[in-house]
Amino acid sequence: MAAATLSACARELSAPCARAGAAEMAAAEAVAAAVRQHGRTLYRIAYLVLRDAADAEEVVQESFLRAWRQGPRWLKVERPQAWLARVAWRLALDRSRRRRAPSVAPPLALESVAAGVDAERQAAARQQLARVQALIAALPRRLRAPLLLSSLEELNSRQIAAILGVPAVTVRSRLQRARRMLRQRLERMR
Question: Less Cβ crowding at N or C end of the chain, within 10 Å?
Answer without folding.
Answer: C
